[in-house]
Protein: Alcohol dehydrogenase
Organism: Pseudomonas kilonensis
Amino acid sequence: MKIYRLQSIGSIDGLVMCEEPTPEPGPGEVLVNIKATSLNFRDLTIINGWSPFPLEEGRVQLSDAAGVIEAVGPGVTRFAVGDRVANNFMPGWHAGPFREFGLQFGTQMDGWMAEYRTIDQNELVVIPDSISFEDAATLPCAAVTAWNAVAGVGPQHRVLTQGTGGVSLFALQFAKARGAQVIATTSSNEKAQRLRALGADHVINYAENPNWGKQAKSFTGGRGVDCVVEVGGPGTFAQSLKAVALSGQVSMVGVLAEGEMPGYLDMFLTFARFQTIATGNRQDLENVIAAVAQNGIRPVIDSRFTFDEGKAAFEHFAKRNVFGKVVILNEA
């Protein structure tokens, strides 16, 4: 089978396609015929050596995949050959609150950038026929993160999203499905039109209006937004504080933008809740899949690459000028 390994950490050039024997499932394991994978910002941090987690050279990359059960090992009860599945993003975290860091795909254990992979049966969930493999492959990290970032949002709430990456677009879609009003930011008028087409009630071009936090607040009659999906980190946090309502929530998701963090008192005086989002567990993924199926939500896919174009997919994604998810298809 074909498989990509990160033979040297530091650049995309370290990704090498290899030929290896197709593995056989052991007790409690299944063999997945991988049909599609998708990229997340974490994948760039691993390849470039920016990740805050311990890294190991030689690891297979990518944390999100969907495929078909090809074979089952002894003792497997959750799945049968032919089942359509997607993987749990955080191995070992199946339900309940986040309590400990375990091994992660692409860092201390092999990920999914391969034609086949064996995995413990407990790290997979079923996907319905109504969700394609490429759509399902976008869900484990970005969609689950967005799902938890807007948890509790309803028709009475206003949500602020930042940019057009996978998490932000899923947050927009989930918030609109729950009846909330969404204010989105972006850097171009073309992307603004696409955000409105997805359902954004207001769109702010932050390249033209660097004080976008104040403008977002003005769209709420001066009250502020109930939830900020904060993906920028230091570079956007000050504006998020200007936008958030008293007792609102800032869901801290990412660190995409460089800058200086506001001071403690600036944060304290918002009386907001600052909630870091640790992606989510297997139950969250099952809830996301159900919501996507029931609401007819279509993940936004920026671009598709073949398996042989795996490095090109990373190169495109690294430019950070995307609208949605970058997907790798193992079969044309």
Summary: The CA atoms of residues 30 and 72 lie 4 Å apart. Residues 2-138+299-329 form a domain with the Quinone Oxidoreductase; Chain A, domain 1 fold (CATH 3.90.180.10). The chain is about 25% helix and 25% strand. Residues 282-295 form the longest helix (14 residues).
